[in-house]
Design brief:
Length: about 300
């Protein structure tokens, strides 16, 4: 039992590494083929590959026999999360804002522990509240333009380009809920529902793409970015994370995921050629510090390894 738990936890760590490049690749791909087209194709391809795997290995029946609350509830949260974060990145006014919304999205590790209190009956110490405040402060600092650090600058930026920030916040909330409810509703249940969720997301977005045509410019770079996003951050990362939150050490993988904002910001800055100012690094630091403080404040059940 403990070996399986450690293996599931390791899978969650691999998922975190895959996700760290998502913002950079999603933004670059969106600039070439369009925000909706990029995510629709990535998740459509990933979903077809994942469901084909379930069929070939005879595991489709097990996936369909998972608890209905998990399939419907967590499946819906999965779709909302993906639509929100990819549109937030794709609709950002520029590459700088794409990195900013990525940081806001990474409130989800701290929110995972916040929602774990009512959903999983997680017990926390008093230091939990300052941790949440630090994480929220980091998310508030991210949208403030370079050289203009004030509450007025924050509200002005939110007023001029609010949609990406709001979508990123929705993404953070929905993924935190998904991570907790997956454990509550599925837990040790046999079967893998993520390929079904990925395919459902792709179909929903292909419908949106049909209703809202976009101009796409395909290049060799866009093609390999699509292939990478469809397989690694999309299909494999979410499948591995789902196993980790259902069967692994959720507080541990959630705490390690707190490093993702720093990894994601560094990769995005390098890949997109954006000079990251100290405000974004400070925002990352606050989000990470707040999340780690939240994790430290969780009272671990005896015997949880």
């Amino acid at each position: 039992m403990q070996d399986r738990k450690r293996l599931s936890t390791a899978m969650g760590i691999v998922a975190i590494l895959f996700w760290s490049g998502t913002v950079a690749l999603a933004r670059s791909l969106s600039e070439s083929v369009g925000a909706v087209t990029a995510v629709a194709l990535a998740y459509g391809i990933g979903g077809v590959l994942g469901c084909a795997y379930l069929v070939v290995t005879g595991r489709l029946g097990g996936a369909l026999r998972l608890p209905r609350a998990y399939l419907v509830g967590c499946g819906s949260l999965f779709v909302v999360y993906i639509v929100s974060i990819y549109l937030a990145v794709g609709l950002a006014a520029g590459r700088q804002q794409a990195i900013e919304v990525g940081i806001i999205n990474y409130l989800w590790p701290a929110l995972t522990l916040v929602f774990g209190i009512p959903i999983l009956r997680t017990k926390v110490r008093a230091a939990f509240v300052p941790g949440v405040v630090l994480a929220l402060a980091g998310a508030a600092l991210a949208p403030i333009g370079l050289g203009d650090y004030s509450f007025d600058a924050l509200t002005a930026n939110l007023r001029l380009h609010p949609a990406p920030y709001l979508l990123a916040l929705v993404a953070a909330v929905t993924w935190a809920l998904y991570s907790n409810l997956s454990r509550r509703w599925a837990g040790d249940a046999q079967g893998q529902g993520v390929p079904l969720f990925v395919l459902a997301t792709g179909l929903v977005l292909l419908g949106v793409r049909w209703l809202r045509p976009e101009e796409s410019h395909w290049t060799g770079r866009a093609a390999w970015e699509l292939a990478f996003v469809a397989v690694f951050p999309t299909l494999l990362a979410y499948a591995l994370w789902d196993l980790a939150v259902r069967r692994g050490n959720l507080p541990l993988v959630a705490s390690l995921s707190y490093l993702t904002p720093i990894l994601s910001t560094a990769i995005s800055a390098a890949y997109l050629g954006v000079a990251v100012g100290w405000n974004l690094w400070a925002a990352c630091g606050l989000v990470v510090a707040g999340a780690f403080l939240c994790k430290w404040s969780v009272v671990e059940p005896q015997g949880d390894v």
